[in-house]
Amino acid sequence: MDSTETATAGASRTAEHFDVLVVGAGISGVGAAYHLTTQCPGTSFAVLEAQSGFGGTWRTHRYPGIRSDSDLYTFGYRFKPWTGAPIATSEEILRYMGEVIDENDLARHIRYGHAIAAASWSSETNLWTVEVVRTDTGRTDTGRPRRFTARFLWMCQGYYRHAEGYTPEWPGLADFRGRVVHPQTWPDDLDLAGRRVVVIGSGATAATLVPAIAGRCSHVTMLQRTPTFFRTGRNAIQLADELRQLQIREDWIHEIVRQKILYDQSVFTRRCFEEPETVRQELLSGVRAYLGPDYDVATDFTPGYRPWQQRIAFIPDGDLFQAVRAGTASVITDEIDRFTASGIRLGSGRELEADIVVTATGFHLNVLGDIAFSIDGRRLDFSGTVTYRGMMFTGVPNLAWVFGYFRASWTLRADLVGDFVCRLLKHMTAKGAASVEPALRPEDRDMPILPWIDPENFNPGYLMRGMHLLPRRGDKPEWQHTQDYWAEKDAFPAIDLDDPVFVYR
Question: Based on the domain organization, do 351 and 413 belong to the same domain?
Answer without folding.
Answer: no
